[in-house]
Amino acid sequence: MISKNKFIANFLFLAIIGILVSCESNFKEVQKINMANFAPIGEADTINLKYTDSGKIKAILVAPKMFDFGNASFPYNEFPQGIDVTLYDGNEKKSFIRSDYAITYKRTSIVDLQGNVKITSEDGKILETTQLYYDQKREWFFTEKKCKLTLGPGNIFYTKGFDASRDFKDINGQAFFGEGETGEL
After folding, report:
1. Which GO terms describe its cellular component (predicted)?
2. Of 13, 57, 61, 182, which one has the greatest count of Cβ atoms within 10 A?
3. Does residue 83 fall inside a structural domain?
């Protein structure tokens, strides 16, 4: 009887070990599948995109690297090495945007610009901040971060929280301060 019980116990022990080992192997395979599903569906190097509407150029986007995550539940494009954008208004006036990093969200048409964000208008207005959002549908910039706004020589303002039209004709700040009152960005 003792040898039969030992045999059954050893058999059950080996069966349980076999099941546990096979489960771990399957778990690792499932992890690999999930990682593959979050990989970008596209990758581009040295891109130069021109956006047109009715035969007129509306924007030019230049970036050294882009990842397309169109397969994510909330699709987006990532620009991990930054972007340079030239925006054209209806009168062919330009605005220039530069940032160290950017993400464009396809469903909302929001662009998240991060790291040394600088916008320069053709008439010399400059906005500098660490993070800025751009609503492509409304053509509107906004942020809750500190900003430096240069409207001309000697006409510099600092603000925490800012929103403005693409051409800077309409500007709203939550709290404006003169130069030196709040410190640099």
Report:
1. plasma membrane
2. 61
3. yes
